[in-house]
Amino acid sequence: MNNSVENRFFGIVCGALLVFVAPLFVLFLFLSSERADKEIRDHISVLLVANAQALAKPLWDLDEESVTQISATVVSQGAIVKVEVRDQSGQLDVSQSTIPRSFDGDLVQVSRAIIYNTVDGPKNLGSISVYYPALGLFSGLKQEEVVFISIFIFAVLTVFGTALIGNRFFVIQPLMRLTAAIEATRQLGSRHHVDWQSNDEMGRLARSFNEMQTKLESEEKELKLAHRRATDIYNLTPAMLFSLDEEDRITAVSDYWLLATGYSRADIIGRNFADLVTSSSRDKFVKRRQAENGMTVTVKFVCLDGRTMDVLIMEAEAGAGAHDRLSLSVMTDVTELKASEDRNHRQAITDHLTGLLNRQGFEAVLDNKIAAADAAGQELACLFVDLDRFKWINDNMGHAAGDAALIELVERLKTHLAPSDEAARLGGDEFAILLPAKDAERRARAMCEQIASIFETPFAPDMHLSASIGIAIYPHHAATAAELLQKSDMAMYAKKRDGKNGAQLFDNAMLDRARSRAEIEANIEAGLVDNWFEAFLQPIVNLNGRGIAGFEALMRLNHPQKGLMPPAEIIGVAEETGKIVRVGNVIMEMAISHLAKISRISGMQDTYLAINFSPLQFDPALPARLAAIVGRHGIRPERIVVEITEAVLMHDNPQIRMIVAELRRFGCRIALDDFGTGYSSLSYLNRFPVDIIKIDQSFTRAINDGDDDVRQKSRMLIESITTLSHKMYCTVIAEGIETEEECRTLHQMGLDYGQGYLFHRPQHAAALIEELMAPQSAVARAS
């Protein structure tokens, strides 16, 4: 109670008395003492004057007895307690004292000279000294002053006591009751009231406190009711609810949470939530604090029985700072949903037939593999694998057989893959393999040998496959995933062009070829848009008389800056890109238009026009399109020769066979071009309505070869083809005749027609027409 209000009040009152009343009282006593001392001094001064005169004569006479009597009379006066009389000559020294032995105070001395008036004048005979006790503060008080002081002290004490009693009764007592009510409320939890009634400030304080207690009691009842309702809702809600404090400790969980996880509330409250998730998900959960406006995270939660479930946690935070953070979170079991998403993701990135990654999955893995290779200080080889002749298997043996072959291929391939390798089916018969290694090129070449060994065993009876493989190495050949895949693809196509069935490592020359091919593609597209394509014509002559029998239409691209471009590369790129159909339609329209103009020249009315068709041009609309063009220009159908190569016939495609038959019924003639090369077979003459056989120019050059064996075999082959063709009522034309000797030999062997630089070079239609119309032209008419 040292710091009680009452003690403080007592201290304040005492301090006020010490500061204000005590100094006044001390001043009063000091002044009273000064006044009494002055009165004593004045009395002693008068007494000394009188006794100094009385002692003058006895001291002159050295009458010691008289001096003693006078001294005794002086010492008996009032406050004087000692008298000393001394002669100037030292012969007389009288001292009288009434000082008790126990006196230890200070004495005040007052002296006066004794003067005697002689005939010679005043003489100083000696001195008289009197002593009186020094007065204290209370020594000089008179009786009435003492009474006044007593009354003053009594009044002060009465006021002081009254203030203490009033303070205790009117202040301390209600405060103690208020304190007791507050302590009882704090300790017992119930709202206690103050039993105090008055109309002063303490009464108003008590009433305000009681009103506050009543209001708080009402609010507490409402809060408890709301808390009970919230707790019931928290526990009865069919959702896994839980709350965390600022240190991620669990402060509350719902009944449904306990039911779903298997834990008990007593065991789980106070535990760190991160301890209940798997180590793989723990960092993700801990880092959620970085998220603003709450948190949404999916983690793997470990239940009491050890099973793991994927849960989606959505957290709403409450609290103003980091030290009073409180959260309410809902935890949803998304195990099935997560599994479904994983299945959908696997299906989205997996090839359904082989189980390998598809293109989308491979591209995602490729980025990760490059990052892993960088981290491990390794290289990464990308093998782009394309099966050879797989389309032939699908077309001739069915897609089921092709799918079975692909599945078998993948099963064989998996036996050669390391755990760090990755394989994917990019589509159709295209595969990609990633091989991380310190020396990726050596590893890639070894893998290519293993892949080649896979194809040694047939995949089914009479089902033999091979593969063209392109190799690109990261980071030597490419800096990005897309570039690595692109360059391995380029290397594969380079191997395709070089003869298939093998592996090719990427080199920068392929980039030059790719740029050249891209430039050709751009020129083809620009040529179609800006009409750069032209149909040149090369006459076909009768070897007996050399009269013109017809013309072969040849495609040319006349670039405005580069001039005429080589047709072979343009045709190859156009066929690869599928633009050969548009190019062929342009040349066909243009060539038939030229034939219509030539037909107006005398003797050219029966000449024919041979048009080369790519396999891609044989669509069902071709007969109708050709009929429309020849009808528009007034050309008889039999004057149009459709030239096809063995590539069109070798697959025995029913649709191509139907289109060729339709053209034949329309009246067009069919010519088999480049006969004698590749897989040429005389069975084509029996299975297809062929009218004309064109001997390839390689045989024409070989009939006069310097090697007797080559020359003899070539002539025997041409003679055999000619004889059999004539037996089947087919006309035979020799291509590439450049010398008179070649022409004479072919004529002697029985060939009907020929074309080549010996007779005419391919020309622009305008130049050819001008040549045909020249008066001096000795061009013979077709026989």
Mean pLDDT: 84
> How many strands, what sense, and barrel or not for the largest sheet?
8 strands, mixed, barrel
Specify the number of helices. Answer: 25
Number of strands: 23
- Strand neighbour order, sheet with most strands: 15-16-18-19-20-21-22-23
Domain PAS: 226-287
Keywords: Coiled coil, Membrane, Transmembrane, Transmembrane helix
Domain HAMP: 169-221
Domain EAL: 517-776
Task: Provide structural commentary.
This protein has 783 residues and is of the alpha/beta class. Helix content is 50%, strand content 21%. The chain is built from 25 helices and 23 strands. An eight-stranded mixed beta barrel has the order 15-16-18-19-20-21-22-23, surrounded by five helices. Strands 6-5-9-8-7 form a five-stranded antiparallel sheet, with helices on both faces. Strand 20, helix 21 (683-687) and strand 21 form a beta-alpha-beta unit. The longest helix has 50 residues, at 5-54. It is rod-shaped. The relative contact order is 0.04. The model is unreliable at 778-783 (pLDDT under 50).
What layout of secondary structure does this protein have?
Layout: H1 5-54, H2 56-61, H3 64-75, E1 82-87, E2 93-97, E3 107-118, E4 121-133, H4 143-188, H5 201-236, E5 240-244, E6 250-253, H6 255-261, H7 265-268, H8 279-286, E7 295-302, E8 308-318, E9 326-333, H9 335-349, H10 359-376, E10 379-388, H11 390-397, H12 399-414, E11 422-427, E12 430-437, H13 440-454, E13 466-474, H14 481-497, E14 502-505, H15 508-530, E15 533-542, E16 548-559, E17 563-565, H16 567-577, H17 580-598, E18 608-612, H18 622-633, E19 640-644, H19 646-650, H20 654-666, E20 669-675, H21 683-687, E21 692-695, H22 697-702, H23 708-727, E22 731-735, H24 740-748, E23 753-755, H25 765-772
Parallel strand pairs: 13-14, 16-18, 18-19, 19-20, 20-21, 21-22, 22-23
Antiparallel strand pairs: 1-2, 1-4, 3-4, 5-6, 5-9, 7-8, 8-9, 10-12, 10-13, 11-12, 15-16, 15-23, 16-17
Helix pairs in contact: 1-4, 4-5, 11-12, 15-16, 17-18
